[in-house]
Amino acid sequence: METPNEAGPVRRYDAIIVGAGFSGLYQLHLLRDRVGLSVRVLEAAEGIGGTWYWNRYPGARCDSESYYYSYSFSRDLEDEWDWTERYPEHGEIRRYLDHVADRFSLRRDIQLGTRVSGAAYDEAAKRWIVTTEAGERFEAQFLITAVGCLSSANVPAIPGLESFAGAWYHTGRWPHEGVDFSGKRVGLIGTGSTGIQAAPVIAAEAAHLTVFQRTANYSVPARNGPMDDAFKAWVRQNASALREKARAAPNGHPFDFSDRSVFDVSPAERQAIYEAAWERGGLRFRASFRDIMLDAKANETASAFIRDKIRSIVADPETAEALTPRDHLFATKRPPIDTHYFETFNRPNVTLVDLKKAPIAAIVPEGVRIADATYPLDVIVFATGFDALTGPLLSLDIRGRDGLALRDVWADGPKSYLGLQVPGFPNLFTMTGPGSPSVLTNMPVAIEQHAEWIADCLSHLRERGLDRVEATPEAADMWGAEVDRAASATLLPMASSSWYLGANVPGKPRVFMPYAGGMAHYRGICEQVAARGYDGFALR
Ligand code: N01
Predict the structure, then answer these.
(1) Nearest protein CA to atom 29 of ligand 1, as residue
(2) Which of 138, 256, 274, 441 could bond 305 through an S-S bridge, CB–CB 3.0 to 4.6 Å?
(3) Is 0.80 surpassed by the pTM of this model?
(4) Is the pLDDT assigned to residue 3 strictly greater than 90?
(5) SS3 446
(6) 12 pLDDT higher than 70
């Protein structure tokens, strides 16, 4: 419904969802088609897909396997969709999400090309006022952010970037028409999951690739390949059991964590187990033993195994040494998986520059300058990550009761209840927000749980004639303590350069942001909270 006012017409809905990726699409489906709300999805991009709309860099594909990096809520959807590869490539995931949008008639309630610039809670009207960069105004009782965890690109403030005579790109804002690297001297800055995926593909096309590495990283082979017919048939036959297993798992992946300790087996058996896991590839390498993520000594055996692999793959000993991580343990930063990453450094057209010896001093018109040397470049690719978890939320300029700015409330680090709500911000839900398991899980599992829990909560309010839900400060304090406790029970906070801690963005508070207590455990807590009448939330 539209009502004119001084600032232009205001469009009213029961709920506004910001973002049309995996989260926003499913939340729209549930709130509109199950709860019966009027819903508008506002999406900055010109297409749906969220992360997969923006991340089109060379080699971009998902590190979770295709048959479970997908929705589980509709058996028909599962039955009718065929994945072609073990790890889906970005274009295939976009096609899947486009199919979902069409199949569930979602597009009519999604407004593309609409960047939200502000959201303020009007206490008297009990409505959120949402404004966009184009000056549009919306009002809604509920505001749900589905903006993703890794959507605010982090382009480092390196002096002189504006003077660069070539072209530069951030991987998370990749041009749709692609980038032609043929005959070009390319500089790649960053060796996280993205840089590690991109380097081999760029190296195969460019005249020369220079990789600028600040922190050496562990990586395990992905072992990507086609989904053959026998495997597809196995997935279909076991679809329910696989989904059940993913839901019951700590990280939303349908694979078992071994119940053996690293120290239950002999060194020779351990080596054989790691070799088999290396051959199998993928994120499940971490699951080879139960204590890899819990005990530094246990983890060191996995870390040492991968270091040995790097040395065995990379021909030049000096390059191998520089590529060998020593300042953190395996998987304490988000572990990448790769297709011939370390092998890439054996190519004659690839150079590694170790920024631990000397940092980038400046970008100059010809390229990158480090100490006295200038590396001449035609293209710079920033694979420098994201202002993770808080960045996408703070960029919305959210203001709650009494004009309270989320930016101020989170000045010393984010605090929330269950990662879903912040005291002072009634009827605002932050899907996969800081304090939720989000990035520590196979994302669709966390997303489906959040969307269903939020839909149930709004149904609960409607059925009882209530119109407001707000986390209490006590509940947020309790949850903050639980997030800290869960993190410190693992090795995750040990990696001082991790984006889980905000360490990659200068000036960002160093707080471990995601909930490390496990997805299944988290699901149980959320279910208990709901069963106790939304314990920790004030309902009015
Ligand atoms: O970003 P990152 P990413 N000068 O922050 C370096 C997900 N993902 O885009 O480690 C020089 O991990 C930085 O160095 P350091 C996944 O969750 C998923 O690679 O901070 N270097 C690091 O090497 C992943 O973890 C998939 O010392 C600078 C790199 O840039 C997350 O996205 C695929 C620098 C950034 O690594 C982020 O990955 C890809 C500077 N000023 C990504 N600033 C899937 O498959 C930063 N760096 C689903």
Answers:
(1) 190
(2) 274
(3) yes
(4) no
(5) helix
(6) yes
Write the DSSP string, 475-539.
HHHHHHHHHHHHHHTSSGGG-TT-GGGTTTSTT------S--S-HHHHHHHHHHHHHTTSTTEEE
d(CA 149, CA 278): 29
Could you tell me the fold of the domain covering 11-152+388-471?
Answer: FAD/NAD(P)-binding domain (3.50.50)
Atom of ligand 1 nearest to the CA of 60: 33
**Residue 519 Cα to ligand 1 middle (Å):** 23
Q: Which residue has the tokens 């909560």?
A: 457
Task: Please name which of 478, 500, 490, 495 lies closest in space to residue 434, comparing C-alpha atoms.
Answer: 500
Q: What is the ipTM of this complex?
A: 0.99
144 in Cβ contact with 17 (< 8 Å): yes
Domain ranges of the chain: 11-152+388-471
280 has pLDDT over 60: yes
Q: 224-253 b/e with 16+ CB inside 10 Å = b? A: beebeeeeeeebeeebeebbebbbebbbbb
pLDDT in tens, 414-444: 999 999 999 999 999 999 999 999 999 999 9
Q: What pLDDT band is residue 5 in, cutting at 50, 70 and 90?
A: low
Residue 495 gets the label, from left (phi > 0), alpha (psi -120 to 50) or beta, of beta
Spacing, Cα 386 to ligand 1 middle (Å): 7
> What pLDDT is attached to residue 504?
94
- Mean pLDDT confidence for 114-140: 98
Can you say whether the dihedral through the CA atoms of 3, 5, 9, 13 is positive or negative? negative
149: nearest Cα among 386, 389, 385, 421: 389
CA distance 194 to 175: 16
Query: Cβ(355)–Cβ(348) under 8 Å?
Result: no
What are the backbone angles phi and psi of residue 278, rounded to the nearest 5°? -65, -40
Please give all residues whose beta carbon lies within 6 A of any atom in ligand 1, as ranges.
62-63, 150, 156, 189-195, 197, 212, 214-215, 334, 355, 360, 383-386, 439, 497, 499, 504
Over residues 231-245, the pLDDT tens digits come to 999 999 999 999 999
SS3 content of the chain, % helix, strand, coil (to 5): 35, 20, 45
The token pair at 513 is 């942001």
